[in-house]
Design a protein that fits this description.
Elements (H helix, E strand, L loop, with lengths): L1 H4 L17 H10 L2 H4 L1 H15 L8 E8 L6 E10 L3 H70 L4 H42 L22 H22 L6 E10 L5 E10 L5 H69 L5 H35 L5
Antiparallel strand pairs: 1-2, 2-3, 3-4
Length: 399
């Protein structure tokens, strides 16, 4: 099985510059550079502040009023100061707090989904670099083999053991191999640029250039019920339901309580102070609330309809990723045997060519088949690791 054939490595973050960059380290570097992640502390404070406001006994800010009145035949003067405050009833507060908490849950689930999306981008870029590095290493190895073959062919031609055409064919094969190295270097550079855009220059410098280094490989796991997309869909339903409950039951503005103190003075220095306590209860707000209720109903219907669609989509993605992984696992054994046979044939033909029992075109064909088989196996092994990564991505697992 795959789990028994793969390995995992988790270097300490402090040794990042001295060890190969693992997928989890690349993800952490990319995550630390995201603006929405940097601002997460303040976003959390915002949600906490919203909850405190929703749970406050003040429905809105209090108001202080003052005034005076002068002018009658007795010269009376009247001074007045008043304080009024809208009061949130316990039921209103509970409804508002439910909506605030629902919005906070949606915000947190959205953040988790953003992290998963970023993980997918990092995974694709990371394994693209690994694949390009492996292809470059193989191309370099083939160029070295082609150079040794060209040298051997030139020596045999000089000694009269082979025709001049063999030297020319060997030189042509060498140039083709060198061209493949240049193409592989270009592909790797493009892949590295894509990864650099996510993790930055410092992280990319830690990425090992060799294709044979031990890299961190994710292990396949089972389906998680707390997939970020499922969690976001479920919390969206809860938040929409809480909002509908609030707007359906809070039809009017909050009642307000007021206290007014009045002091009246006359020219005769006589004065009188009075106090007035008032209560204002708004009513008739149902018609004005109907648009908000209809909007909240529509949001709830959309959220409830979206949830099963998300489940269906995630299930299809997970099954597709699992099937791709299974197909690659089956190909590994076949390609391993193909590479073994092609290498053995190439080695036998090389020995026969050195003793003059084989012509150069036949040897070149054998070398080409060995190179193709080795490259196919190397690519598939990287694809196998990449497929495991895609399975975990489909299951909502972060690196």
């Amino acid at each position: 099985m795959l789990a028994s054939s793969l390995w995992a490595q988790s270097p300490a973050p402090t040794a990042l510059a001295l060890s190969p960059l693992t997928l989890s380290e690349a993800y952490r570097l990319a995550l630390a550079a995201q603006p929405w992640q940097v601002a997460q502390v303040e976003r959390t404070r915002e949600q906490e502040a919203r909850a405190r406001v929703a749970d406050s006994w003040l429905a809105d800010q209090p108001v202080i009023e003052s005034g005076w009145r002068v002018g009658n035949r007795e010269g009376a003067r009247e001074y007045e100061i008043g304080l009024s405050a809208p009061i949130a009833t316990p039921y209103r507060r509970s409804l508002q707090l439910g909506t605030a908490r629902g919005e906070a849950d949606v915000a947190q689930a959205t953040l988790t989904q953003q992290r998963l999306k970023l993980a997918g981008e990092v995974r694709e870029a990371y394994w693209a670099v690994r694949l390009a590095s492996a292809e470059l290493a193989l191309a370099t190895d083939e160029a070295e083999r082609a150079e040794r073959l060209a040298t051997d062919a030139a020596r045999r031609s000089a000694a009269g053991d082979a025709a001049r055409v063999d030297t020319l064919q060997a030189q042509a094969a060498l140039q083709a191999a060198r061209s493949a190295v240049v193409d592989s270097e270009s592909k790797r550079e493009q892949a590295k640029q894509a990864l650099r855009a996510l993790i930055g220059d410092a992280g990319l410098r830690a990425l090992a250039e060799e294709s044979e280094v031990r890299v961190e490989v994710e292990q396949p796991r089972t389906l998680l019920r707390d997939h970020p997309s499922l969690l976001l869909a479920a919390r969206g339903v809860s938040a929409a339901r809480a909002k509908l409950k609030e707007v359906s039951n809070v039809l009017n503005a909050a009642p307000s309580v007021s206290l007014t103190l009045t002091n009246e003075r006359t020219n005769g220095a006589a004065s009188a102070t009075s106090a007035r306590i008032g209560v204002a209860i708004p009513f008739g707000g149902a018609p004005r609330a109907s648009p908000r209720i209809a909007q909240a109903n529509a949001e709830l219907i959309e959220a409830q309809t979206n949830e099963p669609l998300v489940q269906q989509q995630l299930r299809a993605e997970a099954e597709s990723a699992q099937r791709s992984l299974s197909a690659i696992e089956k190909r590994i054994d076949v390609l391993t045997e193909r590479a073994r046979l092609a290498t053995e044939v190439a080695e036998l033909y090389a020995k026969a060519y050195r003793v003059g029992e084989l012509d150069l075109p036949t040897r070149l064909r054998a070398e080409g088949e060995r190179a193709n088989a080795t490259l196919a196996l190397a690519r598939t092994r990287i694809e196998q690791q990449h497929a495991v990564s895609r399975v975990n991505q489909s299951l909502g697992i972060l690196p």
